[in-house]
């Protein structure tokens, strides 16, 4: 199979779909890999590194999209990339379609086979191709939020860990999954006062088993969200209903009760965000203020630490990329129900129920497209 790796073009997105090591592995399995010139420059991988791994360096994305059987990316295809997709071409990347009707419309129109990293599942539960980026974003969220709390950034002027004699800042984490757990690791490491709001009782038991009494867990209701967030210096949004638009836990009306200069880091923004006032921002302009609350809503946070993120992502995406390339997408998806859960759009049909429901498309199960 001819695998194509274009350079990412989203704002300040420095990750790349395949590392030289991943390319070498694909070539070893008999595949041809075309990598766009400079695609790896953001992670310190040169064209020479890719050539040494067996890739062919191609000048433009257009040439890659025109010929490749499978496009391997990181971020959802931007409008100019969507125009280049071809019927039957495989697109393997993050998509986050539920909050993105424009992208969904274009992917349906393209006739391409669109496999979303974020909905592939695992026999052990969870979302294995989302998890490493959630680990990164969760850890980064506290680092970014702490920076926003500095006065020069418009923040409250609170040092998140406090000092002897002065209480630490209060960090409230909405959702105790991968983002939430990793945010807690860093917030606790910095000495913050940490509370996690969660809906899943088993998950709360796991959090307590892991962190002991160092974190407080509270069952997530609207009242709990109101009370805890109003007392917080930093709120981190890490809720998820897989594939669906994020639930709006924080209403605009709630913000008037929040501390002036407090910060909301809405990591869930790639699924639309968990606050009514959240809208996606970029690394170039990561924040804006609503009702004296700083909003940090960068939809590709891991792109900011592209080296760590690219290697972490490739660790989990490569085995499935090889399965698709070795067997062809239909057999790979028929053989593996968990990879099949990644199929969001194929042959002009929406094959992921939450996306179809949220955006008003007819839902066609993946099994029907594969029949
Ligand atoms: N902005 C960015 O750059 C990045 C964003 N993300 C996003 O972060 C979000 C969270 O991802 P993960 O932690 O991997 O998901 P996860 O599935 O591991 O955790 C989500 C948690 O939210 C909980 N939850 C659901 N509804 C809730 C509610 N009403 N109140 C409290 N908790 C609730 C679930 O029980 C679950 O434990 C996703 O939207 C993901 O796409 C992930 C990586 C990077
Ligand atoms: C998960 C995601 O959206 C990202 O890593 O950018
Ligand atoms: Mg997005």
From TrEMBL:
List the GO terms this entry assigns under cellular component, sorted alphabetically. Answer: plasma membrane
Q: Where in this chain does the record put each Alanine dehydrogenase/pyridine nucleotide transhydrogenase N-terminal domain?
A: 4-137
Per UniProt, residues of the Alanine dehydrogenase/pyridine nucleotide transhydrogenase NAD(H)-binding domain are: 149-297
Q: Does the keyword NAD apply?
A: yes
EC code: 1.4.1.1
Catalytic-site annotation from UniProt: 96 (proton donor/acceptor), 270 (proton donor/acceptor)
* SUPFAM superfamilies per UniProt: Formate/glycerate dehydrogenase catalytic domain-like (SSF52283), NAD(P)-binding Rossmann-fold domains (SSF51735)
Q: Which PROSITE patterns match?
A: ALADH_PNT_2 (PS00837)
* Record InterPro entries: Ala_DH (IPR008141), Ala_DH/PNT_CS2 (IPR008143), AlaDH/PNT_N (IPR007886), AlaDH/PNT_NAD(H)-bd (IPR007698), NAD(P)-bd_dom_sf (IPR036291)
Which residues are noted in the entry as NAD(+)-binding? Answer: 134, 203, 220, 239-240, 267-270, 298-301
Q: Which Pfam families does the record associate with it?
A: AlaDh_PNT_C, AlaDh_PNT_N
Q: Which UniProt keywords apply?
A: NAD, Nucleotide-binding, Oxidoreductase
Reaction catalyzed: L-alanine + NAD(+) + H2O = pyruvate + NH4(+) + NADH + H(+)
Gene3D superfamilies per the record?
NAD(P)-binding Rossmann-like Domain (3.40.50.720)
- Give one GO molecular function term: alanine dehydrogenase activity
Annotated residues for binding of substrate: 15, 75
GO BP field: L-alanine catabolic process
What family is this protein classified in? Belongs to the AlaDH/PNT family.
Q: Read off the NCBIfam families from this record.
A: alaDH
**What is the name of the protein in this document?**
Alanine dehydrogenase
Species in which this protein is naturally found: Aestuariivirga litoralis
Q: What lineage does UniProt assign to this protein's organism?
A: Bacteria, Pseudomonadati, Pseudomonadota, Alphaproteobacteria, Hyphomicrobiales
């Amino acid at each position: 199979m001819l695998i194509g790796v274009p350079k990412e073009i989203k704002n300040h997105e420095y990750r790349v779909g395949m590392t030289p090591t991943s390319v070498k592995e694909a070539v070893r399995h008999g595949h041809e890999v075309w990598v766009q010139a400079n695609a790896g420059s953001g992670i310190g991988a040169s064209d020479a590194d890719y050539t040494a791994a067996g890739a062919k360096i191609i000048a433009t994305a257009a040439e890659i999209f025109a010929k490749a059987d499978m496009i391997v990316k990181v971020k959802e295809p931007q409008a100019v990339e969507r125009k280049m997709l071809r019927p039957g071409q495989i697109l393997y990347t993050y998509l986050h379609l539920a909050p993105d009707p424009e992208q969904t419309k274009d992917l349906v129109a393209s006739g391409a086979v669109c496999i979303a990293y974020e909905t592939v599942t695992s026999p052990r539960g969870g979302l294995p191709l989302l998890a490493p980026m959630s680990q990164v974003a969760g850890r980064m969220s506290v680092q970014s939020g702490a920076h926003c709390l500095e006065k020069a950034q418009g923040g409250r002027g609170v040092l998140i860990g406090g000092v002897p004699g002065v209480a630490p800042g209060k960090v409230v984490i909405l959702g105790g999954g991968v983002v939430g757990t990793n945010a807690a690791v860093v917030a606790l490491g910095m000495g913050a006062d940490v509370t996690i709001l969660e809906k899943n009782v088993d998950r709360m038991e796991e959090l307590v088993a892991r962190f002991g009494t160092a974190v407080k867990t509270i069952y997530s209701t609207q009242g709990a969200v109101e009370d805890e967030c109003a007392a917080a210096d930093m709120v981190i949004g890490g809720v998820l209903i897989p594939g669906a638009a994020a639930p709006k836990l924080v209403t605009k009306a709630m913000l008037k009760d929040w501390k002036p200069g407090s910060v909301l880091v809405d990591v869930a923004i790639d699924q639309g965000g968990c606050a009514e006032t959240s809208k996606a921002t970029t690394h170039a302009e990561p924040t804006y203020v609503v009702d004296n609350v700083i909003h940090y809503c960068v939809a590709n946070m891991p792109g900011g630490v592209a080296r760590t993120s690219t290697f972490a992502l490739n660790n989990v995406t490569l085995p499935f990329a090889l399965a698709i390339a070795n067997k062809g997408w239909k057999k790979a998806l028929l053989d593996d129900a968990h990879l099949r859960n990644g199929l969001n759009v194929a042959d002009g049909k929406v094959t992921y129920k939450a996306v179809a429901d949220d955006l008003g498309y007819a839902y066609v199960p993946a099994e029907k497209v594969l029949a």
